[in-house]
Amino acid sequence: MRIDVVSIFPEYLAPLELSLIGKARQDGILQLNVHDLRSFTTDKHRTVDDTPYGGGAGMVMKPEPWAQALEAVSQGGASKPVLIVPSPAGERFTQALAYELAEEQQLVFACGRYEGIDERVIDWAREHFTVRPVSLGDYVLNGGEVAVLAMVEAIGRLLPGVVGNPESLIEESHSDGLLEYPVYTKPSSWREHEVPAVLLSGNHGKIAQWRRHEQFRRTVERRPDLMDTFDAGQLSRADRNALAELGYDVVGGRLRKRPEGGPQG
Ligand code: SAM
Question: CA 112, 116, 121, 126 torsion: positive or negative?
Answer without folding.
Answer: positive
